[in-house]
Amino acid sequence: METISSNRPKIVVIGSCNTDMVVKANRLPVPGETILGGTFYMNPGGKGANQAIAAARLGAEVTFISKIGYDLFGLQALEIYKSEKINTEFIFTDQKSPSGVALISVDSFGENSIIVAPGASRSLSEEDINKAEEKIKEADIILMQLEVPIETAEYAAAIANKYGKKVILNPAPASTLSDTFLENVHTILPNRIEAEMLSGIKVMDIESAHRAAKTIGDKGIENVVITLGKDGAYVKEKDNYVMIPAKQVETVDTTGAGDVFCGAFSVYLSEKHSLTEAVEFANAAAAIAVTRIGAQSAIPYKREVNL
User: Fold this and answer.
1) pLDDT digits over 116-130, tens only?
2) What is the 3-state secondary structure (H, E, C) of 20-71?
3) 224-276: per-residue pLDDT in tens?
4) Taking the CA atoms of the chain, what radius of gyration do you get in angstroms?
5) Which site from 33, 69, 84, 241 is most exposed, i.e. has the minimal number of CB atoms within 10 Å?
6) Order of strands, edge to edge, in the sheet holding 18-24?
7) CA 108 to chain centre
8) Per the confidence metrics, is the pTM higher than 0.85?
9) Residues marked as catalytic
10) CB-CB contact of 122 with 146 (8 Å)
11) Alpha carbon distance 64, 47 (integer Å)
């Protein structure tokens, strides 16, 4: 078995592990309103975990660096990662904080609103990253998001850069990032809202996506991929700009689709494909995910993805 796995791309994912508590209803309540008639699902989630599982199912050898609480949610998540053949050696336990939880409401159109209580994810520290330095050194790609402290993500990016590793950053949830952090990033994968936060430009169409991508690139990032949901993705690769349309599918639930995109993109890029090819593969994987309920339960396997 080991000889096979050595040919697979090695991806280190640094991020959050949450449990998603999802309620589906016809519409989302307005403040002060109670709506009856929802269906409840409890799913393992967290951007880091979703992206780690996506990368593992799509063919990478994945190490996940994260932090959980000493509680049922954390222990359950750990079992799930093991069953997905993810290396859990660097998932640390915080004795003081609970594991992260996300409260998610989804309406009949598949739109969602989410509140995250990050819990232990907020205490992932620079010391934790140091413990996993050897793994970062061996990896092809380091993939991260911002549900862990920004200082920790920035520190990890600097270490990865020191070893000449590609850092893929999904800047979610939207935050203001320092130029020193961005200079260590190979490709940034914001959605519309995050692109606006980083560029100050509201992304409404191809023209504004172009301006936003150029502005973000001017901060020192060669590659920018703005994900535009059902419209696809707008790509800046060095000095080339291209709009890559999404595959048209019947959307059931968009939860976690962006995470599938990030995981898929990282796998394909680490297999020496071009940035554009990686986006096309990521679009195809995300298109499968939105036709299914849930975040991790919706993540496809490599054999299912047709370009």
Assistant:
1) 899 999 999 999 999
2) EEEEECCCCCCCCCCCCCCEEEEEEECHHHHHHHHHHHCCCEEEEEEEEECC
3) 999 998 899 999 999 999 999 998 898 888 888 999 999 999 999 999 999 99
4) 18
5) 33
6) 39-45, 18-24, 100-106, 112-117
7) 24
8) yes
9) 259
10) no
11) 12
